[in-house]
Amino acid sequence: MSTTFQLDTATSRANPTPAPVKRLTIPAIRRRKKNGTTDQPIVMLTAYTARQAQLLDEHCDLLLVGDSLGQVIYGLPSSVPVTLDMMIAHGAAVVRGSWHAAVLVDLPFGTYEASPAQAFQTSARILKETGCAGVKLEGGEAMAETVRFLTQRGIPVMGHVGLTPQAVNQLGGYGARGRDAAEAEKIIADARALDEAGAFSIVVEGVVEPIAIAMTEAVSCPVIGIGGSARCDGQVLVTEDMVGMFERVPRFVKRYADVASVISQAAADYAAEVKDRSFPGIEQTYQPK
Q: To bridge 164 with a disulfide, which of 7, 57, 138, 250 should be the other Cys (CB 3.0-4.6 Å)?
């Protein structure tokens, strides 16, 4: 959604003050990279709820409704069980909660790989029911035909190569990719294929740094790193990892806060006051006039 609009505060305590706003567009993101260089790196974080989107929006160029919500929100062992209905519900919430960043939604496993036509049906439903700006899919050369099919029909696509979580069963785990020459060449070839097919950007995840650098230099579209290199055209992290919601995180995560401890302490303080009957106090109860 790239239109200018006003946010309505009448229906939700979470909405900010109404103000005319204009959302970033996919072409504007794509134009960040000129002649192989991105002077203003692209900032992307994941978001799964409306409130989370509101807090992240002004700081980000892209908000990704990632299928990582399977592990982060639903406690699933991987992103493989995530359904299309899950992605649409969370995608719509993030679009409602944001007004500046372009919102992308992951295509969940099993909803796009069979054919370009299947991918179009899935993507069209996501765009219609969420209002997002585009979709992201995993896979390299094997998905190039699908990327071309979608982009020729008006659906912006972000690619994803390197460590592809939906293929964890085939990869045998979440280890770094590209440690041997053959795999390194394949990852860069995958990126070139997606670029030529019309992807407006490509995520490179969990690869040894020289591959991320070489890939960034090899394609014309912006490359977003996650476990890649600071020399990529932008960066993305799972927000919950970045703010310290989990004890175990991938090597490539930097924690910028310890939100889990703040929440845990707040719950402990609340529990203590409930038990000693000091909450609710006079300020939190309704007294007769």
A: 138
